[in-house]
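Subject line: Sequence and fold of a protein, written as structure tokens
Body of memo: The sequence and its backbone structure tokens, given next.
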Amino acid sequence: MNQYGGSRLPFRSVGAEGVTLRLAHTSDRHCETFEAIDASGGYASACLGANHSLMVETLPAALRCGYATDEVEDVSRQEFLEAFFGVDGLWTEHFPFGRYHVAGRNSGSEGVELAMRLLAEARYDYRRQRLRDEFKGRDTILAFEGAWHGWTGGVVPLLNRRHYRVGLMPTPEAAAYGLRVAWIPFGDSAALREFFAQNGGRLLSVIVEPLQGDAGILCPPPKYLRELAGLTRSAGALLVADEVLTFAKTGRFFAMRDEAGPIPTDITVIGKSLGMGVISVSLVIARQELTIRPTGAVCTSDLRPFACGVMSAGCRFLHERGLVAAAHERGLLLRGLLEERLVARFPEVYAEVRGLGLLNGVELTAEVAPRVTDLRTKLIAAGVYVEVMSGAGRRSGGLRYIYPTLRFAPPLVITEDEIHRLVESAVVGTAFFLGERS
């Protein structure tokens, strides 16, 4: 199935090691290979790169843990939950012990869909088959323009992109129990306050990416996320943080924080790097009072022992080796080089670089935007594998148009030397794109 609406990239993968991909041109029948530094990380999921020794050791051990479902207790699951959510767990600063419970899903999209289910369940009394009195009139979810929360039918309504929504099947009960979604520009404090002033009484929930990825790697201004959390709490609504993309990439495990510390949420969804690039998995971390009707969301893969073994070993490794913390400094180096060597040298191609940690974007100019596919192909051929953020575009409130943005989100194991090589390859590819010979 061609899911791209056109041709795929003219390359084939023939292997990988660390952050180095071995590729070949599909037109080359002799399969002559070349190397490219991976600035994509498999849609930003392969935080350990390829063929990492930790996963080579972990996968057989995780397989031996069995296949116990969540109906019964399991040692691997218990060890994972205690290590990260227990009294002295690694993540208890964000999720205080005893206040949250956790569910596993196959992907970030499924995780966000479960979060939406928890919101719907919060306002519905399934025993009496009616809305709870305290939630009557609360029919609005606030999302943000340009946000990306996944592909599945339950989360597509959150996207303010008609292309992904129109023509899809609504639920039969939509008229009686449906929710409406409202959108405002991300990072605009004035628009935020105005929305809450006018709609706070109807608000059920807010869902936010702490750093918008698909919209073009957009970082909020200082104190914006904490103000958002405060307004949500004051309105009596629930706050959902979509950290599927940001998890472990910004210099901390979680990006919902500022200089004052973690910003409390009611539900947090994490994924991508959580699976270490070898499995697709997500976690939904919710306040304990947010629950599902009995058997209403049973999942075949909910925290199976194999997934718990991979997540536990991988996240411990990221923490103990300092790879999460190192993402901050390596991100500063990467952005500095991209600004100096790429944006400053090719102002006709690149408008600016922005990001946090190892999650970075380089926005194209209006002139080059229509040729983004050709540019990307040239960059890959020159030795740097990048992605294009497709969510860039028009925003309301007089905010400027965001042109297609190249995402530079390499695996956390990337070295400083590899960062330099990555940027130099991008320089060569851009020069090739412009027809330069040197």
Observations:
- The radius of gyration is 22 Å.
